[in-house]
Amino acid sequence: MICLRIKYNFVLSSFLRKSCSALFDFDSGKQTHLQALVLEFESDLFISSALIDMCLKCGKLSDARILFDEIP
Questions:
Q1: Is the pLDDT of residue 8 over 70?
Q2: Is 37's pLDDT higher than 60?
Q3: In this predicted structure, what is the pLDDT of residue 62?
Q4: What span, in angstroms and rounded, lies between the C-alpha atoms of 7 and 22?
Q5: Phi, psi of 33 (to 5 degrees)
Q6: What confidence category does residue 54 fall into, taking pLDDT thresholds of 50, 70 and 90?
Q7: Which domain of life is it from (predicted)?
């Protein structure tokens, strides 16, 4: 994305997570999660719910539960 000069924002973050969950690509989803943490998008409810959805679809139930419990 940096090479393409695409600006990372909360809409793109959510879109990437939904794409990762549709592809069952948990590793790439974790990378988008880390990027959201760095840019402080994690407090957004839309972002949090997309991350939980990705974890559930990838079979990471314990991770999804932890994230659900951390929602503000």
A1: no
A2: yes
A3: 92
A4: 23
A5: -65, -45
A6: confident
A7: Eukaryota
